[in-house]
Amino acid sequence: MKRRNSAVTATLVAAAFLLLGLVFGSGSFSRQIPPKPGQTKVVFFNVGDADSILILDGSGQNMLIDAGDNAHEDFLVDSIREFGVSRIDILVLTHPHEDHIGGADAVIGAFDIGTIYMPQVEKDSASFRDLLQAADDKKLLFTAAKSGMSFQLGENEFTILNPDENAQYSDMNDYSVVLSAQICGKHFYFMGDATDRIETQLLERGEVSACDVLKVGHHGSATSSSEEFLKTAAPAYAVVSCDSDGPSSKTENRLHVIGSKIYVTGIDGTVILTLSEDGIVVETEHE
Predict the structure, then answer these.
(1) Residues near 145 by beta carbon (within 8 Å), at least 6 away in sequence
(2) Is 184 helix (H, G, I), strand (E, B) or coil?
């Protein structure tokens, strides 16, 4: 009789732990753990059909590329805080569309902010006005992002490839700040919403080479990720920030052809890459 009771108890305990796992998620998803010295974490937040990427260096410095949309601003601020972040040393706002700057006013209000990089282009929108007001409230200035500029986050190096100074584009997406980065010895491209027009310019200038990680341009839209660009960049990992509909079939097929491991925030949830001298470890919220 005791054996049966023990078996029943063990079954109930196992079921309880399974339920906790379903409610709180897998313990392997260490979204709240900041990087150790010698590590850098790159966090692609699941903010719908929008962009926000947090880069946390083991030195204690932090960087945010884009701030999602208005609908996810509270989630974004809370998610950043979960890592123990109180200061964002570098804030890059790739271009002034709402799905990239919508949460920027909330981020600026919630955290100590260092340098803000943004292309020198304006948009007549409530989100853009809210951003300007939030920066003004804290007496923050913007640094005009231009190709050729570079900066560091810890030992990690970032170079701005786009926009060119004095560039004039009919499509606001083409003003997107495009970053090439060396993070723990791995090569990244962060494409913002740059279209295939910008990809072609970068190819013609010889500024595209094989990379380890690609933040796929424009949420996986067919207007970006040209065949030639993806063949040249040949990312081992490709992360698409978009909703559950996923990237366009054309973009997805091209990534499959070159053998990229594809992660989609709207499907996989928040994606975390932990980088160190040992390589890249990928965790997803919905593993």
Answers:
(1) 92, 117, 118, 119, 120, 160, 163, 177
(2) coil
- Whole-model pTM? 0.90
Q: How far is CA 131 from the centre of its chain?
A: 19
| Of 88, 90, 91, 87, residue with least CA distance to 100 | 91
Which two structure tokens, joined as six digits, stand for 136? 């003004």
Phi, psi of 243 (to 5 degrees): -80, -170
Residue whose C-alpha is closest to residue 272's, from 22, 3, 56, 12:
56
Separation of alpha carbons 272 and 42, rounded Å: 6
- Strand 271-276 versus strand 213-215 pairing type: unpaired
* Type of residue at 166: N
Query: What is the per-residue pLDDT for 30?
Result: 53
Tokens of 203: 């190819």
- Distances, alpha carbon 121 to alpha carbons 157, 169, 199, in Å: 25, 10, 20
Q: Show the CA angle centred on residue 157, arms to residues 153 and 160, nearest 5°.
A: 105
* 112-141 per-position pLDDT tens digit: 999 999 999 999 999 999 999 999 999 999
CA distance 244 to 256: 18
Residue 143, classed as helix, strand or coil, is strand
- Residue-wise pLDDT tens digits, 257-287: 999 999 999 999 999 999 999 999 999 999 7
For the beta carbon of residue 146, count every other beta carbon within 10 angstroms: 17
At 126, is the secondary structure helix, strand, or coil?
helix
